[in-house]
Amino acid sequence: MHTVIQTSARLLSLLSLLQMRREWTGSELAERLDVGARTIRRDVDKLRSLGYPVEAAPGVAGGYRLGAGGELPPLLLDDAEAVAVAVGLRTAATGSIAGIEETSVRALAKLEQVLPSRLRRRVRALGDATTSFVSEGPQIDPELLAGIAGACRDAIRVRFAYIAKDHSATQRHTEPAAVVHTGYRWYLVAFDLDRDDWRTFRIDRIRGRLRLGGRGRRQTVPGGDPAAFVKRQIRRSGESGAPAGQILIEAPPEALRRRVPERYATIEAVGDDESLVTTRGPWSPYFLVWMSLLDEPIHVVGPPELVAAARSAAARLNEAAVGADRAEQ
Amino acid sequence: MHTVIQTSARLLSLLSLLQMRREWTGSELAERLDVGARTIRRDVDKLRSLGYPVEAAPGVAGGYRLGAGGELPPLLLDDAEAVAVAVGLRTAATGSIAGIEETSVRALAKLEQVLPSRLRRRVRALGDATTSFVSEGPQIDPELLAGIAGACRDAIRVRFAYIAKDHSATQRHTEPAAVVHTGYRWYLVAFDLDRDDWRTFRIDRIRGRLRLGGRGRRQTVPGGDPAAFVKRQIRRSGESGAPAGQILIEAPPEALRRRVPERYATIEAVGDDESLVTTRGPWSPYFLVWMSLLDEPIHVVGPPELVAAARSAAARLNEAAVGADRAEQ
DNA sequence: GCAATTGCGGTCAGTGGCTGTCCGCATTGC
DNA sequence: GCAATGCGGACAGCCACTGACCGCAATTGC
Q: Could you read off the pLDDT of A132-151 as tens digits, one per residue?
């Protein structure tokens, strides 16, 4: 039969086997792949000449194994592993680790494009069960994010429903160009076909499903740098949303760096031994209670609502403790 | 030159291109791969016969694209994407999502085996910057976890330093068999060569680096099921550690399921409208935090330390609010 | 409806890579 | 030193791959 596709398929299988287990002897591989041992040696050579470092050891305890090379070989994942990767990327995209959100979304878009639907269902099920423990920031569906990122990559027009700042709902027809993550929010930079101009959209304000259209033409943001474009737009529109929360902590910034995720808040020194922690977005109850877990004394600076929230959280916790005492008696 | 390796390499490149962008025309691909358009068509056929569903559309807006098939094609990631995947798997492994920890570790072991060292460094750097925001449960280095999982998979002997329950340090020489995650802790089931018997090790009590040895012989846990083995061992040794925390919430369990990660706590109904939430491991301040973020009234049941923690958190919050008032004056 | 673009697949000839077999050699662990 | 293992040269047969050329079908845009 078609030898090359056999050969190619065999090379892929070989790579897969080498990724599954560390050590294989030539004869094991020959048996698994149903070819002669000589062919295995030749295949190993082929893999090497393709840049994948197959290490070999002679002797009775010898065998073949795949080493870490200069280039990443194609990853051959089984179903469960693929699901794990997708779920991992979803959480990474929604941001527990600073600095790789956008790359995670890109990788997720790539994976979702080829993910069999049965696996996609499993990913979705697991993702929904995730319990947004770190429910900081606006909640965004990673699938929506991946879909938008894919549309940007492929220059595919998208229609979606959008809730503007004044809560008015509109239908948008756009040619998406880039997805930008500011450390707090996700934005889509796209050419709005109805308004005939470039716009930025807050992705958490996109509602419903994306409707994909035909191929778009514009894919380069004015100025070339999508992140800069978003920054300008934000500054111009003075988008501030709810006020940030500020808390003063009786500890130098260095002592806090490790305990305050950069993603959520900034730290400034105040005097010698105090730090001002400011949330990047609007404050949330979580910020409050979490700050209360630090060892050092804290003082809420503002806004007044945060002070009120602190008082009510204190009351709730007190009640919880009192309830315990009552239960004991 | 070697046509088959050229052909195989071209198929891989083709797959890579199709994963990068959604639509390519045949002539674009032909130019990129430096072959004739006819060959591209044949290569597409080859990919199809390998099981990867390449969709094609005729017409002026047509082209080739990779669809979602029954089988996952080899993932061809660039450097940044590989790092994102590795970081995502690390966080998934250390457990923000219930149910895929062990698979994530397996996938991570697979990836780390072939990850070029420059990328491994970047992953480590990002991982270290993660800020253990969700620092529930014992902290475990995902790299250690991946290393152990790899040793299990490959049946490679490992030596490591181990801190026993009575804090005494010992050197262990083992043939690792399986890594088990209980929903709270990670365990290694291995054959202890010095003690000549099977043992379970808490991975958070392993110190320092793993030293890998030669090939082991035993890889099947007595009874066949590693998880069951670990469960038996835990029951026998009566390992309980610090006491679990319990909080009574004035809400039916159904209302809580979504807001309380199964991984950290169990929920039982008490009466008609109340639920008892019990941490799986010892309670931590974080448990207190998110319980206090629920809307319904809560009551700490025990242990007394948790009551005390609630009281002191309440006091701190009160002080924080008072401090704010003072600052305003 | 027409034209342009694009994918599809048949055919042909030439070339050269792939496979299995057989061989001797080097290395490692027991 | 023996057994197991990887390495690679040589040889013969075979047939898959490539590029070129062709006409056909489907889709989009005007």
A: 444 455 677 888 999 999 98
Helices (H), ranges, chain B = 3-20, 26-33, 37-49, 79-93, 101-114, 117-128, 142-154, 226-237, 253-257, 285-292, 304-328
3 state SS of A238: coil
pTM (2 decimals)?
Answer: 0.81
Residue A1 approaches strand D within 7 Å at CB: yes
**pLDDT of B243-262, one tens digit each?**
777 777 777 777 777 666 66
The H-or-E segment that residue A300 falls in is: strand A298-302
Q: Which residues are CB-neighbours of B164 under 8 A, at least 6 positions away?
A: B170, B205
For chain B, say whether A150 makes contact (Cβ under 8 Å): yes
Using a CB–CB cutoff of 8 Å, tell me whether B63 touches chain A: no
Q: Is the CB of B58 under 7 A from strand C?
A: yes
CB A117 within 8 A of CB A153: no
Amino acid identity at B69 = G
Residues 2-21 (B) with a CB less than 8 A from some CB of A? 2-5, 7-9, 11-12, 15-16, 19-21
Q: Which residues, other chains included, contact B45 with Cβ-Cβ below 8 Å and sequence gap of 6+? A: none
**Chain B residues lying within 8 Å of A23, measured CB to CB:** 154, 215
Cα A109 to Cα A101: distance, rounded to the nearest angstrom? 12
Q: Is the CB of B3 under 7 A from strand D?
A: yes
B10 CA to D19 C1' in angstroms comes to 16
Of the candidates A257, A301, A306, the one whose C-alpha atom is nearest the C-alpha of residue A283 is A306
